[in-house]
Amino acid sequence: MRDVSVVLEAVLVLDSRLEEVGLLAEHQRPDDAMRLDEKRMVLSQTARVATWHATSASPEEATPRMRRAVPSPVVAPVSLVSTPDDLAAAQQRLARFLRPLHASDAFYAGEPEITADSARQVTASQLYLCRAFAKVASQSAKAGKLAALFEERAEVLESLQPQISHLLDVSEVRDPNMRRYWQQSELTTAVARMEDQGVPIRLQPTQMVELAKATHEVTHNLGKALRRELLRTNSNLRDGNPRHADGPVRISRRSRLEATLTDLINMPAPKSPVAQFNNPLQRAALRQTLDMTPTAARPPSPFPAALSSYTQDAPVF
What we know:
9 helices, 2 domains
């Protein structure tokens, strides 16, 4: 009700200005029972009363729904990244590919959750992406707080990377889900191409929030899949560090690698409401403009101050 009242008041002011210069459409309108001043008084007070009696702040947290492109059957199942707007959807698709299967799943046939090469590729690529996304978020005034989220994940991934450098597969098997490799390659190549070509990665605050949530899902599923594969009884992964005299060994619980993966899994998801990054600046500017715009075309005094930048005969609003 407050937004509707403010918009209607703005339309009344605009119509009065158009009517002054003879540009208002001469459609049939009933005779007004109230003058323009009275209409504005009613609408402005309606906005105030609506604010007083509000029972929920949910309208303040409303944001536009993210437009999701329907994947083409030609390029499915990998989500292509041609513009910065495609990054969140591609990260969400990668998170779905990294989601570990359970023994009760119909498609689970006992294969490894993730291979050593796939774990190293995703870890290194996500480290690169987190640093790139942190740089993008830090350049935004509204989404600057998300930079810390990407930086925290980059720190854990940087610590994880050398710990899995000597991982090897007991039996040479193909990754059970090669789509995660293709999707990660598409993401890394696209971001690197944008940086090399000087294409700025600019995202709306709502898009940055979606990207942060998708990145959290990717790192969470990566840590969960790798930890489950390392600790399961018939794990296909071993630590092949040359310091082990007896050859590759199993990764035990409470080891440094298991602790790092646990930290990656337990990292909190973005909880800040979207409204925090979507302040209603336009609404406040419109309300302030209306408050400083008198109804009369020629005010008797130079107040309000907004009139100082206009000539006496120029429209104020």
